[in-house]
Amino acid sequence: MHLDTxxxxxxxxxxxxxxxxxxxxxAGGDTDPVLPPAHERDAVRALRDDLVGLLDPFAPxxxxxxxxxxxxWHALVAGAHVALVVGWPExxxxxxxxxxxxxxxxxxxxxxxxxxGHDTGLAAARAVLDHEVAHVLVARCWPADxxxxxxxxxxxxxxxxxxxxHLGMRGHPALAPTSPALEGRRRAAQDALRSARDLxxxxxxxxxxLRAAAADDFWDKFGCVAGVLAFADSERSGGLAGLAALAxxxxxxxxxxxxxxxxxxxxxxxxxxxxxxRG
Length: 279
What we know:
Strand content: 5-15%
Strand order of the largest sheet: 1-2-4-3
Helix content: 40-55%
Mean pLDDT: 90
Distance between the termini: 15 Å
Radius of gyration: 19 Å
Low-confidence stretches: 262-279
Number of strands: 4
Structural class: alpha/beta
């Protein structure tokens, strides 16, 4: 794990914002950074220290699920980059941004997160970190195909977002079987996914891929919702072995497995998955 705390440390030491790209990157450089009020510095320092404890070394909320998905996950996410900053304006508090050298960096604004209260901010940061670092794990274990067509891209998206959300949201009340809204949301997501799977028009396919993972409301992100519920169902019905089996099947054909009700059935190994460190 590559952890960059220079921006938040500069603020804590001098009371002014750093000039690094991570501070300016909240809205693509179009919005001016904001200096937090001086009275927030103690809260920022306390949250900064706890975040470093989560990241050095990286400690996900549910390491048993990570180990079930990939026993060597520690080594596979060692190359992830995380930066702690202050200065992002509302409503931005965390996100993945591309560094000048092209690498993806998970950026957390410690002051914005501290504004929610220490415990709430730490929990929010943990969820973001688990989700984004899980994407790193998926990329190492099940690489994308650069020449993939639409169906493969949809499979990969639903698998990637579904597993990352499961590792980041595991046990969330909104995903519990007792949630009264869950079955309706499941049906809506699967209906939208079924329609997306069968699209032939290139423009419609591009729009579907965007909405599957990037709609404004989480429950409208039908690819994320269908994927995370498939992984949640696999663990609920088969325990960690069920989760490992579904993940072990890889992303190829994943949409058909989700829509065919096979998400809880052990799948054969994906030939693209190679044991040990990758990428």
